[in-house]
Amino acid sequence: MASGSLVAIGALWLALAIDRWLGEPPARWHPVVWMGAWLGWAGERIAPSAEAPRPAVFKPFVLGMLAWWAGAAVVVAVAWVVQWHVLRHLPWPVAALTLALALKPLLACRMLRDEVLAVEVALAQSLEAGRARLAHLVSRDTQVLDADAVRESAIESLAENLNDSVVAPLFWFVFFGLPGAALYRFANTADAMWGYPGERGGRRWAWAGKWAARVDDVLSWMPARLSALLIALAAWRWPAGLAAEAARTPSPNSGWPMAAMALVLGVRLRKPGVYTLHAAGRAPSSVDVHRCARLGGRAVLAAAVSGTAALAAVQGLGVLRIG
User: Fold this and answer.
1) pLDDT in tens, the chain (323 residues)
2) Helices 168-194 and 58-80, axial angle in degrees (round to 10)
3) Residue 108 and residue 185: Cα distance in Å, rounded?
4) 3-state secondary structure at position 67
5) Residue 306 and residue 280: Cα distance in Å, rounded?
6) Nearest to residue 261, comparing CAs of 160, 180, 184, 168?
7) 256 and which of 77, 185, 228, 266 could share a cystine (Cβ 3.0–4.6 Å)?
8) Nearest-CA neighbor of 200 among 66, 310, 44?
């Protein structure tokens, strides 16, 4: 196996180990926080005010596309420099550790699990505490949710973010190294901040965020379906009717991991007025939330094993070469 293979595979496992042991780096050193800061600054300049008398179409779309490309170019360039110009001069064990430290902030396994379980702990105290804790995870109005809906939202969040925060970054890392993982996290963050079909924060996003939303759809298409497969592997059974359930969500991608989780747990997941997944399922209990967290952990392990095998194959083809 070539040294590039050892670096990439070692970085993958070390990044996951660092995540498990240490969690997230401080915000001031977190590249995703930096991406969010750029997107917040640019967003104020590309999205028209909701008070504008005549909604524009062409100008905010072009500005949004250009701002997205400007941010993406910087992200990819920095990641490229780290991978191709710094790591090639280091012995492979040191290179693997350095690459892992750069890759780790693009993954968020421990934080996702901890936040979801924290919702259940808070819910055991009171419904209000559960709603408040859930607000850290979702953008919907949590104050109108009952206990069942709080648990449903927590399970949905873990399933969807399993793709966004773990599977998809690893997928693009396998094929394009650190630049691929960094570009995906930038695209996903841009979609989260800009990809709204209506108004938010006093601005119209229908066209300003359309490019960001469509790029995220494209980059997430295959990883989302792989996430559903990994959840099925973690549960050791195929969720019958997966494609039909996944199609119930407006998103072409998020329905796949959420529907897979709903089906393997046997629970109902709802976003009122938008969709219901596995309508015949039961309301989730505390046991289901903890089982969801365990399945998520197994799915991450399966993703790491699959990524290792894929990296060995990709390295053999010479797609990614480090060192």
Assistant:
1) 346 778 899 999 999 999 999 999 999 999 999 999 999 999 999 988 877 777 678 889 999 999 999 999 999 999 999 998 767 778 888 999 999 999 999 999 999 999 999 999 999 999 999 999 999 888 888 898 999 999 999 999 999 999 999 999 999 999 999 999 999 999 999 999 998 887 887 788 889 999 999 999 999 999 999 999 999 999 999 999 999 999 999 999 999 999 999 999 999 999 988 999 999 999 999 999 999 999 999 999 999 999 999 988 866 555 444 44
2) 150
3) 11
4) helix
5) 32
6) 160
7) 228
8) 44
Cite the beta strand spans of 234-321 per DSSP E. 269-271, 275-277
pLDDT in tens, 227-260: 999 999 999 999 999 999 999 999 999 999 999 9
Pairing of strands 269-271, 203-204: unpaired
| Whether the Cβ atoms of residue 16 and residue 106 lie closer than 8 Å to each other | no
Give the integer Cα–Cα distance in Å for 43 and 66: 12
Q: Which two tokens stand for residue 293?
A: 């967290």
> Which residues sit opposite 276 in a β-bridge?
270
Distance CA 113, CA 299 (A): 12
Residue 97 has which token pair? 């550790």
pTM above 0.90, yes or no: yes
Report how far residue 150's alpha carbon sits from residue 171's, in angstroms, rounded to the nearest whole number: 30
